[in-house]
Amino acid sequence: MTRWTQQAAEDYAAVGQQTHVQIFGSRLTQMMGDLHGAKALDFGCGPGRLSMAMLQLGAAHVTGIDQSRVMIDTARHEAEQAGVSNRLTLAVGDETSLPASEPVDAVLCSLALMMCETEQRLRQSIQGIMQSLRPGGCAAITLTHPCFRREPYPMFCYEMPTDYNYFEGGTPYRVHIQSADVDREAIIVDHHWPLSMYMQALIDAGGRITNVMELAAAYDDGDQPIGPPAYLAISASRES
Ligand SMILES: C[S@@+](CC[C@H](N)C(=O)[O-])C[C@H]1O[C@@H](n2cnc3c(N)ncnc32)[C@H](O)[C@@H]1O
Hints:
With about 240 residues, this protein is of the alpha/beta class. The protein has a single domain (about 5-240), classed as Rossmann fold, CATH 3.40.50.150. It is about 30% helix and about 35% strand. The chain has helices at about 5-25, 30, 50-55, 70-80, 120-130, 195-205; strands at about 40-45, 60-65, 90, 105-110, 135-145, 155-160, 170-180, 185-190, 205-220, 225-240. The strands form two sheets. The protein has a seven-stranded mixed sheet. Strands 6-7-8 form a three-stranded antiparallel sheet. Helix 1 (about 5-25) packs parallel to helix 3 and helix 5 (about 120-130) packs across helix 6 (about 195-205). It binds S-adenosylmethionine.
């Protein structure tokens, strides 16, 4: 498991803003629907940038949960700086903390599920996400695209083991994240899970898939993708 030191969390917050946060942040409505007045959960919130993006889109309240105390402290500091602490509740927790006490309208889980080391944790996380929703609520899950682990990306690269096999779940690998604007690198350890495993776990948890987007790591001024698919964003509603 990635152990976040203060420095690693700060590096991640600094480079993450330059990479996926802008890309996902500008597509949250497409992924999650209209967030005005919504109560939302951000599972694996990290430094909380996307929690704050949900507030900016009109969410009434967001609860951010992360297994790392360092990340929650970083998110709390950022929320205070942004003056949104009264609408953002932050707590240390993991999949065993779900479902949250009150059902929510929307759940975001961004780039967190690849950190699950076991299939059991992965399935329990997805179940917890779906069970946290009210019937009809929407979950958006973003992943690094599991089908393109050997492609070059502008902002990050994978250090895949030489014996990496796509069909085998759980393979750990390092991700190096850089930014054009910030002279820092963040390194995290993720685990490879095949696409079918994520989709099946979501279906088994009662999710009805409503939207799927394959996203590049960068876009040009005309919003055209630069480079191969880097991310996958899957939205699912809770039927009952
Ligand atoms: C790569 S960061 C992404 C942070 C944020 N969601 C974003 O998109 O910027 C993944 C975060 O998920 C958290 N995480 C991973 N697995 C988790 C779990 N099972 N329960 C709670 N937090 C988890 C990690 O501690 C980390 O802060």
